[in-house]
Protein 1
Amino acid sequence: MDPVLLATGIAIGLSVTAPLGPVNIIVIRNAIRRSFLVAFLTGMGAVAADMIYATVAAYGVSTIEQFIAQYATPLTIVGGGLLVFIGIRLARSHISLSDLALQEPLRRRQVFGKMATTFMLTLTNPGIFFGFLAIFGTMNAVLRLGASADRPVTVVLGVVLGGTLWWLFLSFVVTKLKGRITEKIFDRINRWTGVLIAAFGFALLMDAVV
């Protein structure tokens, strides 16, 4: 396994995952509301979707690319609608410090539901797939994905590791800092993160219909 190629894949994974977006906001909120583990696993749902798109882009399956392009509008509408729903529900919610003091049991169904949410948010965003295509295309001289069968696998593994490292870092930092936040700040976080998530959703919907 080429360590330079793996490191390049990790850098690509970080560059795709780290920018502030709806999944980052959801993970931050779960780190505050729940725990480090729940926040991290929530982010890993997005990593699973990134792995699918990165794999398809790395192997250059043109039929899948055409399918995504053909159904980009309905996929964008689904993703945008889901974001708006999550954002409005979050903005109207309230968290008290007494609730935060309680350690909620980890129910597998709840955690899987959170992972499924970030997975679908990522998978219904065609821009991520085309982003991987653009990155792999512009870096083709370095990646040389067609040179051998193991190079696409190495790059995709790097992308997964990069995303995993980001969610580990973000979940850990937010979990450590949440004890310094007051109840009033929690309400503001809920309100503004809800507004931001809904705004992302409206932006996707506008992009789909305009």
Protein 2
Amino acid sequence: MLLLSVSPARATAKDARQKVAMPPMMQEHMLNNMRDHLRALQEIQAALAKKNFDNAADIAEQRIGMSSLDTHGAAHMAPYMPKPMRDIGTQMHRAASRFSRTAQEAAVKADMAPVLDDFSTLQRQCVACHDSYRLR
């Protein structure tokens, strides 16, 4: 098993991300949501590797897409987030739903390029938020 570590230069660099204050219970809830999003991204990638486009689409929509907002308690989390952070989150959920539709189409067309492009767009939203904000 390969273990990665943070480079010493990165570990000592000042963290310039904006800290978002939340009650501890909300922080844990958000961190759990983000860990589930990360697991979903891995499951999507595994499904894509097997060309199981319908499964990838279902995971994206149910776990990250617009259909997941109630499950993740997005309405309860939003008041604690700065507007730009909320906007990134909304774009992430929309990108997941777009990816889901593209993956469903790929099941018929067998064209990976649009699927990979939309998957990249989805991940870009995650990176944008994690590059800009932190909870702890």
Protein 3
Amino acid sequence: MQGKKVSESRVIMAQVMDPECANPAGNVHGGNIMKLIDTVGWVAATRHARRHTVTASIDRLDFLSPVYVGDFLTLYASVNYVGKRSMEVGVRVESEDPIKGTRRHTASAYLTYVALDDHHKPTELPTLILETDEDRHRHAEAEQRKQIRMAEKTKEKSTL
């Protein structure tokens, strides 16, 4: 199986936040943003695998600033790490006030996806070809997060 470059699966998705996205406080509901994060992450994962993928976990979804109705939301996703059957996708969300032109880093998340074969079973993935220093930096950080996730899973299993 031939490896894939990070740039081959990178995704940028943009959307205007409409009134139906609002929560009772008048801001965009975090759940709507979470769905968009999962969607853009899924596209990047599926592009890399060229197979159906499913979300296995979400790490560190941090909301850093509010999003308002009428804001222009831009989501950036790229594959950071690929194991044998799972991969980490990083997603960055920025919001823009289209009138003022101000941009804010709104949220960041790391999601793990698993590729499925034709029988809906986890299957092997193409390796990840790191092209830039930024790719290598993201990959190294993703390896550290994977080690932490694995340690947490081991700890959880021992307490059951």
Protein 4
Amino acid sequence: MGHLQACYPEEGCGMLSGRDGIVTAVYPITNELHSTTRFRFAPREQASIFMEIMSQSDDLLAIFHSHPHSAPYPSVTDRAEHAYPEACALIVSLSDSVPQWGGYMISGGEVTSIDILIL
């Protein structure tokens, strides 16, 4: 959460990895677009993180990003650009004083809401 709040008012982003659906690593990534409405991973950071995930024999579990001024639901752009259908899209809204989040599986632009347990 700290990374996303530090990026405000821009969208923050990153990846979550782990095994058997349990997150064991959080990877904040620079949003190279520095946009309030879109994100794109900085390519070198993304490549380095993928190498780390593979070296740990972990799975990419989720792509996360913030919506600084809107609800935690995939935008048209989120649906079109989600490149990892096997990974959850975790979206955190920072538009209220209390952050809200939602988890989604996105494949072919279709969105399915999923439950996420945060301990």
